[in-house]
Amino acid sequence: MKLVRVGVAGREIPCIVDAKGVARDASSVVADFGPDTIEALPSLLAGLDQSALPAVETNGARIGTPMTQPRNIYCIGLNYSDHAAEAGLPIPSEPILFNKASGTFCAPNDPILYSPKMTKLDWEVELGIVIGKPALNISKDDALDHILGYTLVNDVSERAWQMEREGQWAKGKGFPNFCPTGPMIVSGDELDDAKALGMWLDVNGQRMQTGNTDTMIFDPATIVSYLSEFMRLEPGDLICTGTPPGVGAGMSPQTWLQIGDKVTLGIDGLGEQAQTVTAL
To answer: Taking the C-alpha atoms of 113, 117, 123 and 127 in order, what is their torsion angle to the nearest 10 degrees?
Structure first.
């Protein structure tokens, strides 16, 4: 199952991408992909003749977020051992949890907004988990059953706000458009539950990050089970699972995004994103 939403903001068409890569209009089956419909999606789409659905042209079309606004966006920090090393921080013994504000959620190719008060704007290619059904106190063995699928995320960060302004990391993670998501959600059966997926990120055509999900400290099942100990995960909740090395904060000298910079990123099987840093 591959889910994508196509069209102008606020009027996107929910589509299923078929085996030939053609987006098919699924609005006759489900009104949209979002927290109120996601739990029912597997049964709604099971056995569906996708070829009978109208094709939707995607060339040149705007690709929206792959689902409507999630209720919650959770993030796991320092989840790649080599990224922890570049940050000069110990490998965590438990997942480090923080939140991104709901307003960070945006389409994969929407601009990264640059505030005049920013000084250390950074990038992070990440695997996103989309929760498919409620999860509370579930075991690791059961966790994959609660995942609808996976998506590509750029966990944009303002490092001065995150590390130098006191308090929680959320301060540097919550600005509008700091969570470009998509272009699609792909079910775990098509990705071997996100094992060994290559991931990359370029800034202005220069490769900055190269990684692989098989070097995650805590895998998706562990993360979902762990979070469910402390909170009820809801359908459509997005979990950003950490980034490999190569962020601007880890370079010598440190490198930060500026107005006009172009960021492109991708994960095997999950597509690509492209954003331009734009003055607010």
So the answer is: -70
Residues in the chain: 280
**Token representation of residue 234:** 């809801």
**Nearest residue to 239 (alpha-carbon basis) of 73, 70, 99:** 73
Helix (H) or strand (E) run with residue 14 in it: strand 13-17
Q: How far apart are CA 81 and CA 215, in angstroms?
A: 7
**Model pTM above 0.85:** yes
Pairing of strands 105-106, 179-180: parallel
pLDDT, tens digit (0-9, with 9 covering 90-100), for 46-89: 889 999 999 999 999 999 999 999 999 999 988 998 777 877 87
Q: Which two tokens stand for residue 211?
A: 């990684």
Whole-number Å distance between alpha carbons of 206 and 248: 12
pLDDT tens, position by position, 180-210: 999 999 999 999 999 999 999 999 999 999 9
Report the Cα 58 to chain-centroid distance in Å.
21
